Amino acid sequence: MSVSGPAGAFTDRTVEIGYFRRLLDPADDLQVLVFFGGPLIGKSALLVHLSDLVQRRLMVDLTDPTYNRSDDDPALRLLEVLADQIERQAGRPLSRYRHQRSVRPKAERLPRISVRSRVIALFGGRIERSPLSIVVGSNEFLFHVRRLRRERMTQAFSADLAELRLPETCVFFDVAERMSRFDGPVPRETREPDAGDWGGFRLSGHWLSTDLLRCLLLADVKVVFAGQGDVALPREVRALHAAVEPWRSGDTAAFLSSRRLGPVDIRQVAATSQGIPGWAAALADLVQGSGRPLRIEDLEERTPEGIWTGLLSEHIPVRLRQAIYAAAVPRRIVHDELLRTLLEVLAEESGAPTAGRVGRSMSDAELQRTRDALRSLSFVQRSPSGDATGEPAWYVHSMIRGSVLNHLRGQPAWDALHRAAAEYFARTGSFDAELYHRFACNDFQRSDEWLARLDAAYRGGDIQEALLLVDAVLAPEQRGGLRRHRPALLQAGYQYGADLARIQGRIDDAHRFASSAQSMARLRADHRALGRSLLETATRTMRHGSLRDAEDLLNEARESLERSGDPAEEIPWYRRLGELATARGDLAAAKAAFDRCLTLVDEGLGLGYAVHGLGAVELIAGDLAEAGRRLGQARDIFEASGNIYARALGERTHGELASLRGERRAAERRFGTALAMYPQTDVLGRAATSRARAELHLRYQERRSAHELSGPVLDDFRRKDLPLGVADTLRLRACIAVEEGRLADAAAELDEAFLIYTQAGCPLGAARAEAVRGRVALASGEPAEAGTVFQTAGEKLDALGATLDGSLVLRWLAAARTASGHPQEAEQILRTALARHTAAGLPVESADTLCDLVEARLRRRETAQARRLLTRAARLCEQADYAVGLRRVEGLRDTI
User: Fold this and answer.
1) What is the Cα–Cα distance from 69 to 432, expressed in whole angstroms?
2) Rounded average pLDDT per 10-residue block, the chain, 896 residues
3) Is the dihedral of CA 827, 833, 837, 843 positive or negative?
4) Which DSSP symbol is given to 220?
């Protein structure tokens, strides 16, 4: 790869340049480089510098508004930008991608229908059968169409890139913390590709850091990410992660000297900037712009933001200062017309004769000169992808912008500027930007519409749209005004922000937003809002394995909800109580809680969750018939609601039910549908579904695939600090290890799982883990000890009402009794287990138990009874498509 420029051309970034050279060196075998660091540390400037070291580069700023329009999928817009540049560099079209690009869906509008129907989405004559049901007013049809189109476009893009070799091309992604916005309105179906299909990559994380990254790496493209936090990548990617550090004092002085600052200014700027490149460059701009030295009084403010109000007044000429003020009002400027509009308003409000020249009478040439003067400042930054999209977006850095907004707030120009910006965005069709500026000037006329759109986006799974709308109220500069003038609006933003952050796996943000929502509710004595927020916190706490803490939060939430005086608020509380009791294994309490829900709710999602909870309890209890009835009712309610998360939950649980019933193909189909619905960043939902798939494979004694499926699941649960998920997966992997003869691994995994269950207060999980410990003892040649462990675990499971788990233990208890020299007792236990399996409708477990009984009969040479039992076992194996079981049956027949 051709590289130009001296290694030290960029002040004190020789380390980072060295990392980049390693990325370019074929002998190093690196594929991806990730830079992360705080604000103003110079990440964007570093990317620009590194891009100059390569001949072929593609720059992408993930905050560019080109990708933030709510009327289209941002991922498709990004694909188009990348495709255009790759085609220019490769000198050939991406034929498959262009073909799919030209094929437009024939169904662009939701049909007005009065009954539910199956959806058929048409793409260029090929029919895709959707698993969705549609009701009047639902947007899910359009979401699913967009999901299918994204999937097709990504596959076509990948197929084209697989035929290219672009080793001299590097793609730079700036502001990597925004990649979650590209995850799409409804996620695509997840596949487990063979190594030859996608280079062996596994699917986890965000669309951009998995699917798109995989496409680029297939063509030998190098990728660089830069953001405030590290980027989680698939394990197979060969990546280097590096923190961008502040300058050393000598390097700061060298930089300032290169800007021709005097010795006094160099000392003062270096001391104030503390090695932060952006801060040093911005202060240098001020000194050079005014020609006046900095005074110590200018730099005595406690915070950098506070320094800027005085610095701009003292060191920036009036016209340029007003241009900075105007440019700082919107979060980003894409078109010059917005800047012209804001300059006009500021001129009218100021009444200054010189300002009048920069208003509407300004010529295009003068507007361009003003814009160029702004963009020459180090703290006015351009989106790297601006040139690629044809829309040169640029913005004032958040630190300086915050100071400007604080200075303008309360002045007459504040309301006028925001009203003008709101009117501009209303004309251009950017609802979230319009509402941001309306709320900033205390215009809440459309606040109900904002809340309705936000709720619709959240419930419909349009995460990208929901995030944009939440940002309209949760932007840091917005919160103070809303807290004073419309606290309920800010509180709603915090609550939805917490929900969205939890779904995306941003646990720290979820906790911070939920805490803010609770604090506001307490200050406002809003018992209903406080109760809801505490319920959200209890849910998050429960999923993170702190069941005792979750119980305390639920009790506090109930007190607040009771004070609200609204009986309807009891519905979600009883639902969470039932979920907590289910997690613990207290099935009687869970059933009582969900039954109480049913008495309080008549329709909607509340009814669906209550019925689903009862079905999940019956599933653990082993009553598959009642579980199927309940879960079927819940699934119908979830589908009618259009709520993607509820529907995904319904599909996943139906998959678990089908797995127990021996309906393997149906189970795989249900799990695939659930994975297609869960957002890629909903780690809990996706990992739970993948673990259920692994359990299905283990039930059918496909140990290798079960082990391969469970590995990434365990990694995901650990990465997101979900201990109960970790424990359940460790228990599953221990079962696999026992069957593979890896007893030391099984014992270690069980020790960790048992500790988690004990600390979390989960007796059901502990009893299940204890049963697997019995299997380790049995496989280790200690049948007496195993029998004792099985007996204790079975009693605990039966006492908890987990009849299904208790019946499964019986088969292993019989094996322990046989190995201990008690065959008659073992056969009696097997008959009991068979009766329970048959009554529950478990064909795989029944077939295995029948084969165990056949072996007992053969030991007594009762061949006639053995044949009859084998006939029953064969029918069950054929019914359940249980290939391993059929081979065992045939093997036993051969011995007769």
Assistant:
1) 9
2) 36 81 88 88 84 83 64 77 84 86 53 31 31 39 62 86 84 84 49 32 60 88 89 85 84 78 77 75 73 62 62 76 88 85 82 46 78 80 52 74 84 90 90 91 92 82 81 86 88 86 68 83 80 80 80 86 76 87 88 89 79 91 90 86 79 92 91 80 81 94 93 87 89 94 94 91 92 94 93 92 89 93 92 92 92 89 88 92 90 85
3) negative
4) T
- By the 8 A CB rule, do 219 and 165 touch? yes
Own/partner pairs for 262-267, CB < 8 Å, 24+ apart? Answer: 262/293, 264/293, 264/294, 265/293, 265/294
Find out whether 753 and 770 touch, Cβ atoms under 8 Å: no
pLDDT value at residue 356? 42
pLDDT of residue 689: 92
Read off φ and ψ for residue 724, nearest 5 degrees: -65, -35
CA–CA separation, 372 vs 683, rounded Å?
A: 45
208 token code pair: 């951009």
Q: Give CA separation, 420 vs 101, 402, 470, in Å.
A: 37, 19, 22
| Residues belonging to the chain | 896
Task: Give yes or no for a contact between 190 and 686, defined as CB atoms under 8 angstroms apart.
Answer: yes
Structure tokens at 434: 């319009």
Q: How far apart are CA 778 and CA 774, in angstroms?
A: 6
Sign of CA dihedral 378, 380, 384, 387: negative
- Name the helix (H) or strand (E) containing 227: strand 222-227
Q: Is 57 helix (H, G, I), strand (E, B) or coil?
A: strand
What is residue 722's DSSP assignment? -
Q: How many CA atoms lie within 13 A of 785 on its CB side?
A: 12
- On whether the CB atoms of residues 207 and 185 are closer than 8 A, the answer is no
Locate 238 and state its tokens.
């060969």
The predicted pLDDT at position 507 comes to 63
pLDDT confidence of residue 387: 40
- The DSSP 8-state label assigned to residue 351 in this structure reads -
Tokens of residue 117, six digits: 């129907």
State how far the Cα of 26 lies from the Cα of 599, in Å rounded to an integer: 67
Q: What is the CA radius of gyration of the chain?
A: 31
Which residue is listed with tokens 């109480």? 596
How many helices, marked H, and strands, marked E, lie in the chain? 42, 9
Token look-up 């909870």 returns: 613
Look at the block and give the residue holding tokens 């039954």.
Answer: 595
- pLDDT at site 351: 59
**pLDDT at residue 69, rounded to an integer:** 52
Token digits of residue 137? 């007013």
Cβ–Cβ < 8 Å for 315, 287: yes
Question: What residues pair up with 223 in beta bridges, in sequence order?
Answer: 32, 171
DSSP β-bridge partners for residue 172: 59, 224
In sequence order, what are the residues at sequence separation of 6 or more whose Cβ sits closer than 8 angstroms to the Cβ of residue 746? Answer: 734, 735, 737, 738, 772, 775, 776
The two three-digit tokens of residue 515, written as one number: 């805490």
Tokens of 892: 């036993």
For the chain, domain boundaries = 14-243, 249-316, 842-896
